Amino acid sequence: MSDSPVDTAVASSAATSADTPAIPRIQRLSTRLANQIAAGEVVERPSAVIKELLENSLDAGARSIDIDVEQGGRKLIRLRDDGCGILKEDFSLALSRHATSKIRSFDDLACVASLGFRGEALPSISSVSRLELRSCARGDDSGWCVTGDGGDTISEPQPVAHPEGTTIEVRDLFFNTPARRKFLRTDKTEFSHLETVVKRIALSRFDVAFALRHNQRTVLKLRPAQSEPEQRQRVAQVCGSAFIDHALWVDYQVADMRLWGWVAQPTFSRSQADLQYFYVNGRMIRDKLVAHAIRQAYQDVLYHGRHPAYVLYLTLDPTAVDVNVHPTKHEVRFREGRTVHDFLFRSLHKALADVRPGTVDEESGEIIAATPTGQTVTESSMQRGSPPAGGATGRYPGATPGGQYRQQSNMAFAVHEQRPGLQALYQGAQTLPAGDTGLDVESTEAPPLGYAIAQLHGVYILAENAQGLIVVDMHAAHERITYERMKTALEGDGVRSQPLLVPISIAVSESETRLATEFTEVFGELGFVVEAMGPETLVVRQVPSLLRDADVETLLRDVLSDLATYGTSQRVREAINELLGTLACHGSVRANRKLTIPEMNALLRDMERTERSGQCNHGRPTWVQMNMDALDGLFMRGQ
User: Fold this and answer.
1) Which fold has domain 31-222?
2) Is the pTM of the predicted complex or chain greater than 0.85?
3) Which CATH number among 3.30.1540.20, 3.40.50.2300, 1.10.3210.10, 2.60.40.10 corresponds to the domain 375-490+592-634?
4) Listed range (217-221, 283-287, 415-419, 598-602) with the worst mean pLDDT
5) Range 294-315 average pLDDT
6) CA-to-CA distance for 453 and 461, rounded, in angstroms?
7) Of 121, 348, 377, 441, which has the highest C-beta tally within 10 A?
8) What is the Cα–Cα distance from 29 to 8, expressed in whole angstroms?
9) Do 534 and 552 meet the contact criterion of CB atoms below 8 Å apart?
10) CATH number of 496-584
């Protein structure tokens, strides 16, 4: 028998009521659950624990920090410092959320000078481990101790014997959150991450001593480094002696911004971005704006696919940088991002360009005969190493006071490809002047790259200088010289524009249209004339004459993307430089081209005057120094 209409309606209503979910109620999270959620943001692995504890110790004014780790940090992390300690009255708040001694008001948050400030680290760590905190405040007779076992409550403070400072023990990490614990890697991997964090923070504070032990074995011991040689020694301990041997010291200041530290020469590049340390007001950060600026500075001299190495410090007004943009405080936001980007780029670009054979060492006042831009082969390694200090003077035989040579030849090399508008750039760019092979009567000392003595297989120039033998890749060296001359010529004339017979219409978003309108002057400097023809349409009427055959739409979109992210763009300059680099490669002296001794000497002198002459346009080294000790070692002389 079929159901009646009334029964069907009642059944339908009941089904609808059953399918409708109940409205979820809002309720307050328990303290334990809230701490564990916060721990999920802050405490990813043992290395994150040690980062938070180290920052607390440094904020407390510690001058010596000892760290003991067992089983990669999952069993034990113990940190002892000699900081100011914690008062007995504050122990009840030490493991409470949002309790801190580092800020008091919103004004303090706007100019944070401490490494930590949120007050979540210790309670978050305590919620996923068994934690013991012992501390004695400066001036107190005894210390106090509290413990937490991952629950909602902590023990009452108990008196203990303890020197001034603080000791924190974190045991059995993630013992009460097995889902997190199973994602930990092997002890070796976890300790490797932890050691990296300790090294990074150790580079931020040269005045603090650090000691790190793993399973009762000393792994790292760093003494305070006050003087410049001691600081170099610490950098060598952390980054390796090869880095500091190949590093250039930089120190630039503009207004209230200062950039200082060490950048590795381009030939000391890495396959991974694993040797990059950058600090903002003493805070270790990884920021895409900073990474982009540094990558741009190395663009002309770094081999494709390689990564630069550096240890750099940026100091600026704390109010100009927001450090409260990420739970782990790894990222920052600059108030004037474009200004910071330009400052980093220009400073490093100048530092890399200024070093060449014959550069004066600012500290010793001596002429560097073989600068870090080139390569030096030593007896011990017979590999690329550090340059010898001192040596030849900066006077070149045959040079007039104005730096011009007495003899010039008009040896022009064939250019395989030329485009309209580039002819002016070639005038003199590919010219190789003939130098004077005779010694100057006023000086008998050799210039930095010495004097040519032979040509090997039509590829390499062999030269003799004060240190030994110089080997030059003549094509790579002349390619760099030609390229730099073409860039200089282009900068003098500016980027010339060419009107399009048929303007290019490009569909974009409204935000990109506003961006193009805002940066009209920037586009003009780059050689573009871009107009908005609607809320989502841009029209390109003029393009750089050198790039008229390029994919204008893709290039424009890339420029807009850079402007939105960094407030500036080098895309057009990169595209032009890539074209000039290709033409310089074709226009430079080729292999198997026989050169006379005067022509070889002229090329060496040009290298000494040309920026970035240690690398060709593709990042390959252009010259190698073999000193006499290395040569003697090849033949076992004196052994």
Assistant:
1) Heat Shock Protein 90 (3.30.565)
2) no
3) 3.30.1540.20
4) 415-419
5) 89
6) 8
7) 348
8) 43
9) no
10) 3.30.1370.100
